[in-house]
Amino acid sequence: MRDIRPEDTALFQSVEKGFREVARRFGYGQIRTPHLEATDLFVRTVGETTDIVEKEMYSLETKGGDRLSLRPENTAGVVRAYLEHGLHRTAPLQRLFYCGEMFRHESAQKKRFREFTQAGIECFGSPHPEADAEVVAFACEVFRELGLGDVRVELSTFGCPACRPPFRQALREYFAAASDRLCAECKRRLEKNVFRLLDCKEESCRAIADAAPRIELDDECSCHFDATKRMLDAMGCTYVENPRLVRGLDYYTRTIFEVFPAGGSGRQDALCGGGRYDALSELLGGPPVPAVGFAMGVDRIVMALKGGQSSSAGPDVFIVTEATDAGPSRSMGGQLALALRRAGLSVVTDILRKKFPDKQLKDAAKAGARLVVIAGGDELTSGEAIIKDMNTGEQSTAAMAPIDTFVSAVRKALALPQEKESAS
Ligand code: HAM
After folding, report:
1. Contacts 24+ apart (CB under 8 A), 182-190
2. Nearest C-alpha to atom 14 of ligand 1 is from which residue?
3. Ligand 1: which atom is nearest the Cα of residue 270?
């Protein structure tokens, strides 16, 4: 687990902001669920034999004897909440999004964190491929919004409970024939849940899994997948089909997908993963509720963005004033700063009494300020502050009173639209 410093926090926030904006455009409302849930919820849904449940959960027992876990993912919690609040009875079609911390005790590696942030959606109530296409398109729009439009979307289908038994049988026979080359865990999983062998992270097992038989879809699953792809094609969402795609959670039926950074090679650096999970509600004692969703790893997206842009944006304005005591220049600086902040700008003033103006100008450059406003003794006498554009070096002056006019001059220097006058 790690600390996120302010320069990175700014990027986290911009990713979350972009995600929320896309959620608004798609008509999704936010749900917030607890970080702690009953351990059993994850065992039943994510799957007893998955890495997440077998090795990665932070679990505890309360003094009252309840077994709880820090959520390793949020689909299970959102389904629980959906059922607990009776949404399946009142408004079965629900478009929900969330953004929050998840916890997995994974082996420490680049891009794998033990506390990480996921932004995700869950769309409940539609069994139709339109919902699958909406969810994949939503994910693509988030990446587009964030300027990461050249990601690689991998799409596949895991069939339904009706087309699984022959697939399961074929896999059992295939892996049993190679059992002497499988890792100890896979040998055990061969009996318990053969699908998990497709997801083993051991190199030797992966090589065997790569050549494993593929699922044969029944007519309904095949039609569903074709219609999903047709809709994505029509929307111009590009994807590649990857019949070898496997998800690390047991609850999926039909459509599954993952999103990778363009040019990324590893399977471990997925930026997003999701799919349909029509059987999850019943597994938790609810009625049948078709559902589809995804979650994206905000930490990994921040890392991808960091390659391309500077991680911290400086303030709009740095105000430089004379540092002798808290005299009139300083007071004027305080007034100007507050007026500009109230107009929505980010403004920093010198509070270390650094030398006027050189040291303060240096600090302004270091902070990455776009504009500097100089309001020293001379400026106080003339009534006009100096405005300096830190990118071009251009200078102009602006009267400090009336203050609204000054604010307009600064907004203009920042090429921001002027605020409308409030209707009287
Ligand atoms: P997941 O594939 O386990 O799916 O996780 C989704 C995304 O979370 C991954 O693609 C990755 O970007 C990020 N992630 C996972 N583990 C870590 C980690 N240790 N460090 C950093 N990022 C990580 C789910 O969690 C499903 N609940 C998604 C879903 C929603 N399916 C349907 N609805």
Report:
1. 182/208, 189/49
2. 297
3. 10
Rounded to whole angstroms, the Cα distance separating 40 from 116 reads 22
Distance CA 297, CA 111 (A): 10
CA pair distance 329, 243, nearest whole angstrom: 69
Give the three-state DSSP class for 287. Answer: coil
User: Is the distance from CB of 316 to CB of 414 less than 8 angstroms?
Assistant: yes
Q: Which tens digits make up the pLDDT trace of 149-194?
A: 889 999 999 999 999 999 999 999 999 999 999 999 899 889 888 9
Question: DSSP string covering 46-82, please?
Answer: T-TTSHHHHH---EEE-TT--EEEE-S-SHHHHHHHH
Q: How many residues does the chain have?
A: 424
104 CB under 6 A from ligand 1?
yes
State which H helix or E strand residue 157 sits in: strand 152-157
Q: What DSSP state is assigned to residue 94? A: E
**Cα separation values, 281 from 164, 196, 251, 269, Å:** 19, 22, 10, 29
Tokens of 416: 């921001």
DSSP letter for 398, please. E
Pairing, β 152-157 against β 255-260: antiparallel
What residue's CA is closest to ligand 1, atom 4?
A: 273
Residue 74 backbone phi and psi in degrees, to 5: -125, 0
DSSP states of 119-149? EEEEEES--SHHHHHHHHHHHHHHHHHTT-T
CB of 138 closer than 6 A to ligand 1? no
Q: Is the CB of 37 under 6 A from ligand 1?
A: no
> HSE on the CB side for 95, CA within 13 Å?
14
SS3 track for 215-261: CCCCHHHHHHHHHHHHHHHHCCCCCEECCCCCCCCCCCCCEEEEEEC
Cα first-last separation, the chain: 53
Alpha-carbon span 315 to 306, nearest angstrom: 19
> What's the gap between Cα 166 and its chain centre?
37
Give me the sheet containing 317-320, strands edge to edge. 347-349, 317-320, 371-374, 384-389, 395-399
Q: Are 311 and 11 in contact (CB under 8 A)?
A: yes
- Burial code (b: 16+ CB inside 10 Å, e: under 16) for 52-64 equals bbeebbbeeeeee
Distance CA(369)–CA(170), nearest Å, equals: 63
- pLDDT tens-digit map of 268-320: 789 999 999 999 999 999 999 999 999 999 999 999 998 755 456 789 999 99
